[in-house]
Write a structure and sequence with these properties.
alpha/beta, binds adenosine-5'-diphosphate, binds thymidine-5'-diphosphate, Thymidylate kinase, ATP binding, ATP-binding, Thymidylate_kin-like_dom, nucleotide biosynthesis
Amino acid sequence: MFIVVEGPNGVGKSTTVGCLAARMRERGFLVHVTTEPTDTPLGRLARDGEETWPGRALALAVAADRTLHVEEEIRPALAAGQVVISDRYVQSSLALQQLDQLPLEEIWRYNAHVPPPSLSCYLHHRPDVLEQRLRARASLSRLERIGSPERELALYDEVYRFLERRGWRQTRIDCRDRDADTVAALLLQEVQR
Ligand SMILES: Nc1ncnc2c1ncn2[C@@H]1O[C@H](COP(=O)(O)OP(=O)(O)O)[C@@H](O)[C@H]1O
Ligand SMILES: Cc1cn([C@H]2C[C@H](O)[C@@H](COP(=O)(O)OP(=O)(O)O)O2)c(=O)[nH]c1=O
């Protein structure tokens, strides 16, 4: 089982992934948690380049990192019988690289070769709450500065419809008035279904 958690900056992806992993481990699953960009030389290069590179270079670097992530980490963990939960995957590129004016079809071409997850979980929330959370951060990345929670939510909605048409298994969870563990419990129900 390969589960990905997606959504705009500050929506609670990392926190929810932690809660979902804990709930699954309690139920006896072997869980491997991972994140994109990865904590590898290629992933760190993409993170460092985000501030200054042209959008297309960043899109390609992130797609290269994802390709290696699949081959060297995700597939081996799945083959070993682990459940893999990734904080960000293809949807992040389809949404975020559009902030750099790249067309959706071009971003899709860079990512079309990686396997679809068993389930992609899109977390969403009210834009004003996300804005408040971003304001609490010490610094913002370039993409956080040029985008906005409202724009990111609109892009993720568009990407959700785009992937529906391509037959991806997805679920969309409203995080309003739900703590991270409640969101994780809802995700687990979806996973079990
Ligand atoms: N469901 C939730 N309800 C309230 N606060 C949350 C929830 N999920 C996450 N948070 C808080 O929101 C902030 C951003 O969460 P984080 O997991 O870092 O988001 P992301 O990984 O999507 O950027 C953190 O301070 C976290 O504690
Ligand atoms: C996964 C992914 C990340 N990124 C960029 C967005 C962010 O600026 C940067 C780091 O991702 P982010 O999830 O914001 O990392 P963290 O919260 O750990 O700092 O990578 C893309 O541009 N496309 C992608 O597909």
